[in-house]
Amino acid sequence: MGYKIINEDCLIALKDRTLQNVDLTFLDPPFNQQKDYKLHDDNMDEKEYWDMMSNVCKSVFDLTNEGGSIYFMQREKNAEFVLSCLRNSGWTFQNLIIWKKKTSAVPVNGKYGKHYQIIAYATKGKKAKTFNRLRIEPPLPPNYKFLREKGVFVTDVWDDIRELTSGYFAGNEAIRDKSGERFHKQQTPIALLIRIILSSTEVGDTVLDPFAGTGTTLVVAHQLQRQSIGIEIDPLNTELIEQRIASIRDADIIQKYYKDYSCTENIAEIWGDDFEDEIDIKPIGLFTSQAEN
Ligand SMILES: C[S@@+](CC[C@H](N)C(=O)[O-])C[C@H]1O[C@@H](n2cnc3c(N)ncnc32)[C@H](O)[C@@H]1O
Predict the structure, then answer these.
(1) pLDDT by residue (tens digit) across 199-224?
(2) Which of 100, 111, 147, 263 has the fewest C-beta atoms lying within 10 Å of its C-beta?
(3) Burial (Cβ within 10 Å: 0-12, 13-18, ≥19) of residue 216
(4) Which fold has domain 3-292?
(5) Where are the domains of the chain?
(6) Which residue among 25, 26, 27, 40 has the greatest number of ligand 1 atoms within 8 angstroms of its CB, and so is best to mutate?
């Protein structure tokens, strides 16, 4: 499926009038928490940072089709800024998704430890033009006798997707340099993008990622037969994205997640034609422990 990788500041690239008809945007910007980015100052004045994000949200809104969607990921402490940023740029709020971490909580003095990140889901217009209600099959909870025959609908709490943290938890999916260090500390798991793209698009739709990083969005969109556009300011990252799509690594192959969604009524249609390839692949998807991987 077609993809476009743009090596530019997204604030400039998003003004390009040839970018249009976007159906879904995944927004995973730097969180302004003093991380080390080569070409981005992650220690901006708070107002300057949120003005920048409002600008991005407005530009994305302008090039999105009516009923298209945006998923804006952030730290939970910034929830009120995220919601007002989306509202002020025209988006209609739909859900505040809690992405609960599988690793231990970050301890904080004087208040509760932090155990999740937020993903605000909003649409252009009152209603999404596409929303596929996915069904998954979580393991049987203790004291339950039978699994539900048709699984359960995905809710706004996502506690089944493992983040790519340092160490062995990151598994093979984390891209590493020659010294074994992770190439990009904020690489998003493919499982997260599979869920978002399956929920909010159809085969052939266009998915945009203005802060593409290692290109997870494009790698998943490409395999799910959606068109994709990735914008990334760092040329080393755009080079990596090119390679990552040109030669899909085993760890990036999405078919191993197909069975996790097999209770979803229209899964064959929304997954695209390649779903048949999954038959030889061991299902090591959402509900398999790290030890089994
Ligand atoms: C949190 S990371 C995204 C990670 C991505 N989701 C992945 O799976 O790899 C944010 C990315 O935005 C890039 N970036 C920062 N400022 C940018 C800008 N103004 N325009 C485009 N990219 C930018 C950074 O270089 C970084 O790679």
Answers:
(1) 999 999 999 999 999 999 999 999 99
(2) 111
(3) buried
(4) Rossmann fold (3.40.50)
(5) 3-292
(6) 40
